[in-house]
Amino acid sequence: MLEYLPGYIGVDIGGTNLRGALARSNGEIVSRFRLKSAIADGADSFLERLTEEIHQLLRDASGYGLQVQGIGIGIPGLIGTDGTIHSSVNLRPLEGLNLSRLLADRLQLPVVSANDANLIALGEVWAGAGRGIQSAVVITIGTGLGSGLILDGKLWTGAGGFAAEFGHVTVEPEGLSCPCGNRGCLEQYVSAAALSRYGRGRTPEELALLAQAGDPAACAAFEKIGYWLGTALAGLVNLLNLEGIIIGGGVSAGFDLFEPMLRKTVQQRAFPQIFEQLTLCRAALGDDAGLVGGALLAAVQKQDR
After folding, report:
1. Alpha carbon of 136 to those of 39, 127, 145, 267: distances in Å?
2. What is the pTM of this model?
3. Which end of the chain has the lower number of beta carbons within 10 A, N or C?
4. Cβ 240 vs Cβ 135: under 8 Å
5. 131-284, what's its fold?
6. Residue 144 phi, psi (nearest 5)
């Protein structure tokens, strides 16, 4: 008689794409799906499509000798510890819903939800660039700036589940307006949009090519990213004495272009004793980080029960 090993499903919900993966308990992905989120069609339609895709992964599991023990879902926005979606700018039809509970009822499996950047952090620290590191911040620089904190090997979500909104740390008190309602948030100075603004409207990809060719204005745009991010991160590592800073997201494709200024700024502003023990590197898992993190979160929840 075949003895099945535990397997887990990670789901990454974005405003544009909906992705999921079946993984072994070590985070190795063996099957996956990808389709358009089509969130404009409404919550009911979205749930039907997501449930159908997860059912297919459940059918795939037996072929890999796996029995799915739980599901972890990454959602952009403010996600409560109970799984309620309090705010998600790109997924408005899902706001107010408890996606974990709805899917658990449909699938008869344990389901846990968390902010998508938190799951990216889990994936990178447990199975990516941060292996062996116990305390780290994982920064995701894309359209905005997301982050996740791993402290003493565990995801830190705070009292209500909303921790690690590092993109909304104020770095310029009377600075640029942010959609969150504040002014001078880090996200307004470190993001794809900020990089394009520094580069007079050019895309990050165009700026990267120019900077690699030595264009002074393009190089300066990436240096600004490094300066602002380094300034904020120095305060964070001084506060928490972190072991690692891991940088991912679309803008991290230009990591080599802003890393020297980033490293220089952190070194100048952090305590020497803290900086000497700090690992600063680029993320390793790419788009799979959130999927792996979701699967691993489901595994941890299973162990804790």
Report:
1. 33, 13, 16, 17
2. 0.92
3. N
4. yes
5. Nucleotidyltransferase; domain 5 (3.30.420)
6. -125, -155
Mean pLDDT of 243-272: 97
Q: State in Å, rounded, how far the first CA of the chain is from the last one.
A: 27
Token readout for 102 is: 């709805």
Q: Any idea which of 44-53, 149-158, 267-276, 294-303 has the lowest mean pLDDT?
A: 294-303
* Closest alpha carbon to 64 in 101, 106, 22: 22
**And the tokens for 83?**
């799984």
- In percent, the amount of the chain with pLDDT more than 70 equals 98
Can you give the pLDDT at residue 28? Answer: 94
Q: Which two tokens stand for residue 115?
A: 């902010």
**What CATH code is assigned to 5-120+287-304?**
3.30.420.40
Please check whether the two domains, 5-120+287-304 and 131-284, share a CATH topology.
yes
| 192 pLDDT above the threshold of 60 | yes
Domain ranges of the chain: 5-120+287-304, 131-284
Burial code (b: 16+ CB inside 10 Å, e: under 16) for 194-218 equals bbbbbbeebebeebbebbeeeeeeb
